[in-house]
Design a protein that fits this description.
about 475 residues; rod-shaped; single chain; 9 helices; two-stranded antiparallel ribbon; 5-stranded mixed sheet; alpha+beta
């Protein structure tokens, strides 16, 4: 039973500027992540979740976004040229700045600079600060005072704690990056943050006292001149803000480090998978070329003494073929159908010199526009080679090969017909067929297939879903 790969999950991560081109990310979850400037060119993102994400200047050229969920995301300057977006969900996505939400987990929200993350952090901070200060205050209240008219005083203290909590979180968040950049030692960072919080809270307390609290505290002092709590030291009430600020800063710093570590590990694993695919394709390319060369040289050797002119002609044609194989970039895995057919025709001309009138061939493309489509390099030559070896070469009469390219029901079909003996049951295990099958699997997964037919006509049929043709051509370099 085939082992299914578990979809990638990278929610609430910061991946700005990363390269995920030409990767298989089907079903991946990038929700609540910062993906600004990320490169998804040519990637398989079918059914991926990219909700509430920041995608400014991201590129999805030739990517497969079928049934992807990109709701509530920012798509400012996003490039989707050539992308397949059938069934994709872009609900409430905008060309302006998005929420840039991160994971709803506490650490993800605390480290977020988005308004929703700040709002939740402020809310939690206000509650924590209010609770801490309330514990200290009401403990002293119970210990030192009796019940009295405290409505105005309590309202004042509650307002002070909420405002203090909001500002404490905002200061801690805005100072976090500066502290990490400017101060090396962690202890000094916390000390600097604590000093700023103490100074701020004293300034807030004094401002609110002279603006609103002076009258309230005088009334309380008149009614309860002997209340011991009135003489408590001021520094008791800075403990809460200092604790809250340092806890938030610590969690934010640890959250960033954890997120960065996970992101880097996931990214490296994806890159290793991508490099593995490239290496396997390189191996297939290297295997196909020597195999063809071996057969071609054998053909030339058989004619050197019998017909030197034909041997010379074949050598020149072989030289033309090698210009095709070596005149491009080494990491070039794709080429146009037009170039592939030119290479196949040259190969057939080489074989025709050897077989003479015993070999006839035709090349048919039903729509000239199909010639510009990008297909895997050397996708046809091994099949045509098999048609010669297992078909025409075994006929006493004239052999015929027909290469036909056509489109049907959104699938591109590359067919090679020959009038030789029918395929044996073990034909699918041949070297050329296996090489093509492996290459199609690596490049397209389930979006391409190779089939052998004996009825109604003997043929090898390669079918590739047209929507994925050409994707990843630049990214596999």
């Amino acid at each position: 039973m085939e082992d299914k790969k578990k979809p990638l999950r990278m929610t609430g991560t910061s991946l700005e500027g990363r390269d995920f081109s030409n990767m298989n990310l089907e079903g991946a979850d990038f929700s609540f992540s910062s993906l600004e400037g990320i490169n998804f060119d040519g990637s398989n993102l079918r059914g991926a979740k990219i909700r509430f994400a920041s995608l400014e200047k991201a590129t999805f050229r030739n990517a497969d976004l079928t049934n992807a969920d990109m709701s509530f995301s920012s798509l400012t300057d996003t490039d989707m040229t050539g992308a397949k977006i059938e069934g994709a969900n872009f609900s409430f996505s905008s060309q302006g700045k998005s929420f840039n939400w991160q994971d709803l987990k506490l650490i993800g929200l605390i480290q977020s600079q988005s308004w929703i993350g700040t709002l939740v952090a402020v809310f939690i901070g206000a509650l924590m600060l209010y609770g801490t200060s309330a514990i200290i205050y009401f403990t002293l209240e119970i210990a030192y005072t009796s019940n009295a008219v405290r409505v105005q005083l309590n309202q004042y203290l509650i307002a002070q704690n909420i405002i203090g909590g909001v500002m404490t979180v905002l200061i801690a968040q805005n100072m976090a990056v500066w502290l990490d950049t400017m101060i090396d030692k962690v202890v000094l960072r916390h000390l600097a943050l604590s000093t700023v919080i103490i100074l701020f809270f004293l300034a807030l307390s004094m401002g609110m006292y002279f603006a609103f609290g002076q009258k309230i505290f005088k009334a309380v002092q008149v009614q309860y001149p002997l209340e011991a709590a009135q003489n408590n030291a001021w520094y008791w009430y800075t403990i809460g803000p200092v604790i809250i600020a340092n806890v938030f800063y610590y969690l934010a710093r640890q959250g960033r480090q954890l997120s960065r570590k996970i992101s880097d590990q996931e990214y490296q694993l994806l890159n290793l998978e991508k490099l593995k695919t490239r290496a396997e394709l390189d191996a297939l390319q290297a295997r196909i070329n020597p195999h063809f060369l071996y057969n071609a040289l054998n053909s030339i050797a058989s004619l050197v003494h019998e017909d030197p002119d034909k041997a010379e002609e074949m050598t020149l044609l072989l030289s033309k073929l090698f210009r095709y194989t070596t005149g491009r970039k080494n990491r070039d895995y794709f080429d146009t159908i037009e170039n592939e057919l030119e290479m196949v025709q040259t190969y057939l001309q080489v074989e025709k010199v050897r077989f003479g009138e015993r070999l006839q061939f035709e090349v048919e493309v039903t729509d000239p526009e199909l010639k510009a489509l990008q297909v895997p390099k050397f996708i046809l030559q091994p099949i045509v080679e098999n048609a010669i070896k297992h078909g025409v070469a075994k006929l006493a009469d004239q052999g015929k090969i027909i290469v036909k390219i056509y489109e049907e029901n959104d699938w591109l079909h590359l067919c090679v017909h020959d009038n030789g003996p029918l395929f044996a049951d073990t034909m699918g295990a041949g070297y050329g067929i296996r090489s093509i099958q492996e290459k199609l699997k690596l490049l397209y997964g389930d979006d391409a297939r190779l089939e052998l037919h004996n009825e109604p006509n003997k043929s090898v049929n390669i079918s590739i879903l047209k929507s994925v043709i050409g994707k990843g051509e630049e990214d596999m370099e």
